[in-house]
Amino acid sequence: MSSSLCIQGLTASVGGKEILRGIDLEVGAGQVHAVMGPNGSGKSTLAHVLMGRPGYEVTGGSVTIDGVELLGLATWERAQAGLFLALQYPVEVPGVSMADALEEAVAAAGGDRRDVVERLAAEAVRVGQDPAILRRAINVDMSGGEKKRNETLQLGVLRPRFAVLDEIDSGLDVDALRMVSSRVEAATTEFGLGVLAITHYSRLLNELHPDVVHVLARGRIVDTGGPDMATELERTGYAAYGGDTEEPVTGAGGAGDPAAGGDPFADPLA
Ligand SMILES: Nc1ncnc2c1ncn2[C@@H]1O[C@H](COP(=O)(O)OP(=O)(O)OP(=O)(O)O)[C@@H](O)[C@H]1O
Ligand SMILES: [Mg+2]
After folding, report:
1. 4-226 has which fold?
2. Which residues does 195 contact at the CB level (< 8 Å), separation at least 6?
3. pTM beyond 0.85, yes or no
4. Where in the chain are the domains?
5. Could you state, in chain order, the average pLDDT of each consecutive group of 10 residues for the chain (270 residues)?
6. Residue 121: CB within 6 Å of ligand 1?
7. 105 lines ligand 1 (CB under 6 A)
8. Whose alpha carbon is nearest atom 30 of ligand 1?
9. How far is the CA of 3 from the centre of ligand 2 (A)?
């Protein structure tokens, strides 16, 4: 049986407001699934709920890696089960260097901490991170791009089974973007990494080739398609998935068609 991250009927609220309204997704080992969708649709909430960030109330569903339930586990236990999250806004960790943190993480997972320095140096080259940065406190006073390279470095050293990348491309210049996305793509074959890549832009997906693209809108996966869907979405936007109806409205007679109860936000003069 091939390994998989399986999300079923996942619902969650924050501050008493339901944000995730039934997410079903299955990512196999070595696969790349892109998740796109409008601002505020619940993409980062999904990422945080998967990793067990406090403050989110999971109200239903399940998240498993090879049948092992992750919901209810502490974040570090989810990490040990093979899940990794690259944050949209990486946190600063004063007083702790990347090598210190990764040595502890590798040792806690039963690996050899003596391997870390060498692996970290190799990963730094692969994402173009200045080695001097690795001796500084994690992310403190670092540029947006340096922080995103740091997230990718950790992924390379820790070699998780599944990685959720929340806008790993935001803040990266074009060269960094190419290095980061090709590093992640290589991981899918090097160690069979399964990827859930949240992004607003198809440019991430030029090197990181998605098998599937999903649209997340108002807390639900409202559409799923092939890799070409990313460029199509960039062209069309999310109007076809908009409105305040409970069910997604797509295709002819859908969005923008008042007779079909389409997008109430559509420009009436268009
Ligand atoms: N702690 C919180 N308290 C109240 N509302 C919250 C909280 N965290 C998130 N939300 C709300 O949940 C909704 C989904 O937010 P989320 O960050 O998941 O969106 P997103 O899809 O990642 O958007 P973006 O593309 O802008 O990153 C937003 O309306 C947000 O304001
Ligand atoms: Mg987000």
Report:
1. Rossmann fold (3.40.50)
2. 27, 31, 32, 33, 162, 163, 165, 184, 187, 188, 208
3. yes
4. 4-226, 238-270
5. 92 96 98 97 98 97 97 96 96 95 93 93 96 94 96 97 97 96 98 98 95 97 96 92 54 38 42
6. no
7. no
8. 40
9. 27
